[in-house]
What does this fold into?
Amino acid sequence: MIDVVTQMMEEPKGVLLLSTGSKVAIARAASKAASRRDLILHGSDCTENVPTRHFVDRFTCFDTSSEESWIEKLKSYCLENSISLVIPTRHADLDALANQKSSLAKEGICVAVSDTQTISVCLDKLATSTFFADLSVPSPQTGLVEEAQNGVIDLQHPLFVKPRFGSAGRGIKEIESKQDLWEYPSDWIAQEKAVGLEYTINVYVSKKGKCVCAIPHQRILTDGSESVQARTERIPVLINWAERIVEGLPGAWGPLNIQCFYDRQKDSPQFIEINARLGGGFPLAQAAKGEFIEWLLQEAFEESELTRFDDWTDQLLMMKYREAIFDPVD
It folds into this structure.
């Protein structure tokens, strides 16, 4: 009888969404998946003034992942609240989480992040370019600005220059001549301009490293590098390349998204970037029946073996709009 009472008094297992910010669509999808399993959904950010606080069961504040004590605070919070799964949503958190993935797993805390090798490939644009070349993935010629300045590599203009470890399109500039290269840091990336329309492929990779689902969408309109208008499109060459890319990544797991440009006339893509997390286009993939968070919870809590899913909705248009949440003072 004591064991039964103790079991009834135990804290229900939980799921933690990190750095939720204004990612309401992610919080809603996670809330549905958690409630199906009687799990408590936790959310976090570095401030309480985020709308996602209203879409989770419990909310807490953490320092940013650049703080030395961040991992220890995260671990303590997870242990105190019986959290078994941590889902990152922020680019800057991935490296720290990947490096601590094994140590957190020993505490019974599963982090939905790819292994360090894959995170290194995704965070470093030069490493991404090398990875594409090794897999013979079509991509624009890329090198360090210093190499382009000194003629070590011969790139065709116009070019894009960008920070080697940047994200969300920050710092990207288009330049028209070699002379313009000298205005930018030598350790930045120089990349030939890709031809075609801009696409994202949202992909889910199983724990066994297999591509479960790949959903391309055209980025019709963006705001701050995030899709605000987009449409799913079943393009076999993009799906096939996306599958090859993610299955070539060492220790990839969970939601990833791949950026490319696609020339319709030639049916030819050029891939430029891999993001190892839920991206801004996730709401469209979710609405198109790409149940990425549901699949994460199936693998983490039920140890389910996922099968390939291709029955997603083609030609689904997403149009985001701004909505306000009002939080009165107590």
Q: What stands out?
A: Confidence is low (pLDDT under 50) at residues 1-9. The chain has three domains: 2-113, 141-192, 195-319. The radius of gyration is 21 Å. The longest helix spans residues 236-248.
